[in-house]
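DM between two lab members

TW: hey, do you still have the ParA family protein entry open?
JB: yeah, one sec
JB: this one, 350 aa:
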Amino acid sequence: MQKIAIFNHKGGVSKTTTSFNLGWSLSQLNKKVLLVDTDSQCNLSMYALGEENFEKHYLNKSKENIYSALLPAFKSQPRLIQAIECPKINENLYLLPGHLDFTENEVQLGIAMQLSSAFGSMENLPGSINYLVNETAKKYNIDYVIYDMNPSLSAINQDIFISSDYFIIPASPDLFSLMSIDSLNRVLPSWEKWGTKARPLFKDSTYPLPFTTPKFLGYTINDFNLSHGRPQHSFRGFMVSISDKIVESLSPSFNSCGMLMDDRKYKTAYQHMKDSSLNQSIDYPDSYCLAQISNFNKLIAISNATSTPVFNVRLNKEMLHNGQERTLKWFKFLYKALATRVLELTCDEH
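TW: and the structure you got?
JB:
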């Protein structure tokens, strides 16, 4: 079982959309997938369940969510954390729902993660989220866990990140995403350095931290407009700049703390993606770029309203008349290619 964190502390970069559509694509490749909503806004839970089922779930199964499941650790209850009953999204896809109150755990977790201040029951807090996810994944024979994380540099995000096997950085072609790469270049290695020190210290707790170093799978570029089948000029400059920063600065920094795989693995997986594209146009600026996914326009509204992946939405007559069927096939190819590449990058790593 592999755990993948989808993270960028910049908002509006399609973290939730990437989590849901990647998870669905992996499930279509016969992998059992658990989506974990760790953002208190619960956008992933709403997307996966739909508005009506979302309301029903929280009214009828109030304890089947990440906040309630972690109460034994965060409220020092005399019982072990147990796997929860997860809503089934499709035959291979499950959801561990989020909760608005999940951020209440932030302060306690932050104190516990200061190491020297962790005492008594607090030593069980850093490993509790990982324990819940592991137990729930065992219940459903999960192959891949995907964390949809909130846009912040919080203790909760740090804890999830250092408990993951892999991570993906979604970005948009704009100035703030470019700035976020510089920030992540400082923050993520420091989180892993903390994890290296913390894992042995928490190894005897009821919920120990896993002894794994998260590996960089790559990044995605999302939400840009096309002109004649290519990103508009105003976006292309930022795409090149983001690529330059990742290749020249971010990847060497990750490599220095063990968060990068062998360079040949990235290049081979990228080449396989290009070879499989046939008549489709795949020409990314570097081998860390997992996907470039343009603006969905009207498709995303239908996707959200129907809790359907964007590449599986049903087109109305007007959209068929406007040539949206070709666009739909393109998105289906992109997400299948992304999922296939993730499978290749994560195979034989553990």
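TW: got it. The first strand starts at residue 2 and ends at 6. The chain has 14 helices and ten strands.
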